[in-house]
Amino acid sequence: MGRAPCCSKVGLHRGPWTPREDTLLTKYIQAHGEGHWRSLPKKAGLLRCGKSCRLRWMNYLRPDIKRGNITPDEDDLIIRLHALLGNRWSLIAGRLPGRTDNEIKNYWNTHLSKRLKSQGTDPNTHRKLSEPVQGRTRSRKKTTTKHKNNKKKHNSSNKRAFMVQPEKPKVHLPKPVRVTSLLSLPRNESFEFNTTSTTNLEGGGLGSSGTEDVQLPSYVFNGDDQNGTAGFLVGVHDHHDLVNGSDFECQSHVFTGENSLEKLYEEYLQILKNEDDHDQVQLDSFAESLLI
DNA sequence: AATTATATCAACCGCCCCGAA
DNA sequence: TTTCGGGGCGGTTGATATAAT
């Protein structure tokens, strides 16, 4: 059965957006804000589907989109987050300010996945390809057919399968956290939640996107689980936006300054290492903490 | 220079979640 | 409680760019 399409696509433009359409959409959203995507095209004078408008805005026109190549730091973070979260691109994107889920997804599929394979690592399981895979069900079965009619049903049945594992309670994914609402905040203010605990990637000289100062949030670990290695890992801004704002107690360690990413990675490594020893328990608790 | 193969990524699709009626 | 619709997600496509022959 399925839902009716979001709009009758009759008479609507499709394909690449023209500069004029971009301008119309941008001006409308600047004046009226995001949302009401279905009615937006008509009001904005666009012959586009509402979903198309939303996608264009989210993935291309938003003022906080970070242009330029993915830096090695981001690169590494994506890999590690993918190991924890699987193909939940919006969640991963929520940890990479200025990056979109679509961009990360594309980057994964075109670069990282191949790189991992070339390094002898299964990009789905993040284990060595020679290792038997057991107990990890998050990776989905890849479709091999290119027939559209088949693939969609096939995919959709798999799509949620890894999210609802039989032996585990159902996890409802949170909406991804956009770092800020960009209409209300100028770009430079987007990540000023804690200027002393951010890492300036440019400072690392890692071939970033050029002129933009990109600051990643530092991360806060809650080391109060059994052996103090895993626990929570959330972006600082998430205390306001993701973790219900107020009653989130966790700052047992706050990494600040230039080494925060390195420390973060070390913790990740530790977590991944422990995964082998502790049958995924800590990893899952960590991953689920991101989903709260 | 022309052709073919491969890589990239913006855009689309269909499904699901969740809040409102 | 059920239905409906908006919004969001992940998978995939296809046009374009680039590299290789």
Automatic annotation (TrEMBL):
Localization terms from the record: Nucleus
Gene Ontology CC terms: nucleus
Listed InterPro entries: Homeodomain-like_sf, Myb_dom, Myb_TF_plants, SANT/Myb
Record flagged with keyword Ribonucleoprotein: no
Residues annotated as domain HTH myb-type: 9-61, 62-116
Basic residues bias locations: 137-157
Annotated stretches, region: Disordered: 115-169
Sequence ranges assigned to domain Myb-like in this UniProt record: 9-61, 62-112
Entry's Gene Ontology molecular function annotations: transcription cis-regulatory region binding
Main location: nucleus
Keywords on record: DNA-binding, Nucleus, Repeat, Transcription, Transcription regulation
Pfam families registered for this protein in UniProt: Myb_DNA-binding
The keyword DNA-binding is assigned to this record: yes
CDD domains on file: SANT
Name recorded for this polypeptide: Uncharacterized protein
